[in-house]
């Protein structure tokens, strides 16, 4: 395992490591928001070790309650593999019930007719290394990994394929300390934009000059407006009932106006995390719906009205 860590450290981009050090403050306040000092150090260590850029959606921090998780995606694992000198390519595909599929010692024999493939059975991935005789093989059964969300219903082939690829790439290069969204069932389908270096610099400068947000109405209002916009947008697949249900389950009330700033921030992470770290691949055919969120008045009586309206309509 030490050799693996050493190898990955060697292939990591030195310029990226330097950039991560320079942007530590903005990373902790955005990508790794909510991480304590020890968790943040662990996050930074893994980002440097595997050469993953937080601002390019290659690694991100997720904390639910007191349990931290450092995640990547199929593309993150693929970057780790591509940076490894022994990587020799990979092959992956989805298997349907009418396909002809056979597992062999050195790979698979898979043929099919595109006209009538039947329902999805699963997906496989073969990862080849120059220093190994046989490829690493993983098969992900669809019934074991499928979720009931809209993204799985709409993009079932892409999602199960990502499961197989993530597990095979991780196994082939002994990646530890990271889990993928596919492995833990975290799903997204947002068409997001990566941050440029200029945008990162601007964000960092803005954070330096930003006053502390301690239960002020404006900060809470901004979060509620973003949640309302997400509900109104058809692209997000976020419903008002889901927001109220999660809020009630975690904080004892589905009335967002009664939540404090910390609770609203956690609720936003749960539902809008994909806005920053979504996967473009599933939504190539989707059109972005640009919906302007109405400004909520600052008085307590109207605070939260926008989301309450969106929730009721959603």
Describe the structure.
This protein is an alpha+beta fold. It has three domains: 2-71, no CATH class; 78-184, no CATH class; 215-313, no CATH class. The chain is built from 14 helices and eight strands. Strands 1-2-8 form a three-stranded mixed beta sheet. Strands 3-6-7 form a three-stranded antiparallel beta sheet. A two-stranded antiparallel sheet has the order 4-5. Strand 1 (60-64) and strand 2 form a beta hairpin. 32% of the residues are buried.
Q: What sort of overall outline do the alpha carbons produce when their principal axes are compared?
A: flat
- Element-by-element helix/strand order: HHHHEEHEEEEEHHHEHHHHHH
Helix residue percentage: 40-55%
Mean pLDDT: 76
Note the gap between the termini: 49 Å
Low-confidence stretches: 187-194, 274-304
GO molecular function: DNA binding
Protein name: Phage recombination protein Bet
Pfam family, one: RecT
Organism: Orenia metallireducens
């Amino acid at each position: 395992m030490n050799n693996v860590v050493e190898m990955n450290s060697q292939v990591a981009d030195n310029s990226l490591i330097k950039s991560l050090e320079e942007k530590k403050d903005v990373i902790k306040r955005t990508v790794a928001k909510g991480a304590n000092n020890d968790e943040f150090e662990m996050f930074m260590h893994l980002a440097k070790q595997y050469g993953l850029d937080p601002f390019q959606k290659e690694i991100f921090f997720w904390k639910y309650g007191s349990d931290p998780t450092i995640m990547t995606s199929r593309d993150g694992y693929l970057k780790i593999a591509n940076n490894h000198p022994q990587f020799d390519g990979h092959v992956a595909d989805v298997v349907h019930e009418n396909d002809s599929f056979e597992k062999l010692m050195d790979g698979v024999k898979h043929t099919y007719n595109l006209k009538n493939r039947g329902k999805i059975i699963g997906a496989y991935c073969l990862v080849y290394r120059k220093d190994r005789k046989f490829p690493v093989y993983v098969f992900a059964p669809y019934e074991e990994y499928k979720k009931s969300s809209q993204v799985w219903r709409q993009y079932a082939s892409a999602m199960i394929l990502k499961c197989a690829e993530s597990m095979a790439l991780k196994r082939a290069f002994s990646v530890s300390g990271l889990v993928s969204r596919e492995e833990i069932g975290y799903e997204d389908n947002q068409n997001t934009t990566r941050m440029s270096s200029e945008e990162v610099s601007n964000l960092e400068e803005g954070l330096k000059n930003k006053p502390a947000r301690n239960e002020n109405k404006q900060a809470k209002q901004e979060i509620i407006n973003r949640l309302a916009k997400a509900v109104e947008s058809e692209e997000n697949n976020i419903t008002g009932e889901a927001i109220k249900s999660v809020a009630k389950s975690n904080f004892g009330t589905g009335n967002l106006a009664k939540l404090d700033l910390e609770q609203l921030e956690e609720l936003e992470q749960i539902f809008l995390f994909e806005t920053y770290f979504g996967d473009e691949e599933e939504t190539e055919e989707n059109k972005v719906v640009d919906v302007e969120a109405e400004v909520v008045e600052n008085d307590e009586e109207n605070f939260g009205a926008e989301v309450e309206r969106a929730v009721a309509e959603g």
